[in-house]
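Example 3.2
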Amino acid sequence: MLFPAKSFAQEGEGLHGVKPPVALPSEFVFLWIALGIITAVVLAYFLVRFFIQRAKKKVVVPTLPPHVIALQRLEGLRAQNLPAAGKIKEYYSILSDIVRRYLEDRFALRAPEMTTEEFLFSLRYSTQLTSVHKGSLKDFLESCDLVKFAKYRSTVDEMEYSFLLAKKLIEETKLVESHV
């Protein structure tokens, strides 16, 4: 047996009264102060973060209509003067991207992710564009593809025509806001 048979109370020690509180050593005062400072800093951090996020939610940035963004991008493309620099393929890539992104933003069509053939096929039964707009869009995208993929060397007049075709398509299909 590991323990003796007699209990501790039988040893004559008996029960004692409650001991008085023990004073903490002075080293613990520093720990309590440090803990208080850390708690205050963490609390201040979360309060500041909360109020900054709350302020950000109140800021409403007006978004421009898709046609305005597209027309601004067209003017930016024109300002780059890529045809004069001989960057014809880059010019057509940017031009078709502007039109495709406009169509995505304006009509929720997934134009940028599709090939021209896929996109034109998806438009076949769509009522969002008129048949005239579908035809001009087809001509526009096919002329862009000729330059981008078939290494067709477009003339300055053809480039200007494509630019004007893109601009016309955007202006004719823009969302007209009615003020009631």
